[in-house]
Structures are given as structure tokens and as C-alpha cells.
Specification:
rod-shaped; 92% helix; mainly alpha; 36 residues
Length: 36
């Protein structure tokens, strides 16, 4: 695996992780909002 591939994989991982974090934050905000 070349350094370029490793960089691309890391960028893809960070992108997927940030999407997952945003999804969970949105889920918790919606639950808190609907809970009131």
C-alpha cells in the first residue's frame, strides 16, 4: 500500500466518521426535542 493510498484511506475514514457523528448528534437532538 502506497502512502497515497494510506492518505486516501485516512481521509475516507475521517469522512465516514464525521458523517456518523453528525448522524448521531442529529438523532439525539431529535430525541431530546421530541421528548419535551
Amino acid at each position: 500500500m502506497t502512502p497515497e493510498q494510506k492518505k486516501n484511506n485516512r481521509r475516507m475514514g475521517l469522512t465516514l466518521a464525521s458523517i456518523a457523528v453528525l448522524f448521531f448528534i442529529g438523532f439525539f437532538v431529535r430525541m431530546a426535542w421530541l421528548g419535551h
